[in-house]
Amino acid sequence: MWRCWLRSAILGLALWTGSHALAGDLADFNALMEGVTSHIRVALGYLRTGNTDLASLEIDRTREAWGKLQQHFGSRRPDMFETSPRYKNIVTGVAARLVGAELLLNAGRPDAAMESLNALRGEFYDLRKASGIVVLADCVRDANTAMDALMVYNDRALDFAKSETRLDLVAKTAIYGETLKRCDGIAGEAVRKEPEFRRLVDGAQASLTLIPKAIETRDPDLLHRVLIELRSFDNLLAFRFG
Fold first, then answer.
1. What is the pTM of this model?
2. Which domains does the chain have, with CATH numbers?
């Protein structure tokens, strides 16, 4: 009997160790990837404002951050991507993509550099999504998409008399609000308590409560002001946490 107990204990320890190693891999990978994407976010912010010198500096820092990730995971694929067909194609091309973005910037093509960096962020998003990995940056990206859908109603000539218009506006408002709640839940405790994060998420949620009033009073000007305010919150959320 004691041998059966010993085998069970050994098996349990192996399973526990394996699961914790996997969790450790995931946490390390996500932390290192956040280091990469945080510099991409800042570079994109500088490119939007036309500050190409600082954007170039951030692309250099992105390469350094990617080098750290490669040092940690370069010799082996993280367990959660073991069966991912996307992993190799994406990660082996990151360094070259960053060099390409730098060359585009130096060639006086900042818009093309922005497209390249945004495409890279999209590939990271697709990689994690296909592997069932959820991080705050991806949730913020989902929120941006939901906000894009909501901005369709930023039209002062909107016809509130159409029931399908009202219903769709209500639905898109709900989707954006629920996505923000999900992002709030995904954020780690430290991020969730950050004054900037709270200001953006809570501010957006407060603005959303005004959309039903705009619908009820059929006030396109109020809806316009609310949507512009929401877009501002959304852009800042993407710049800081996306």
1. 0.76
2. 23-133 (1.20.120), 137-241 (1.20.120)
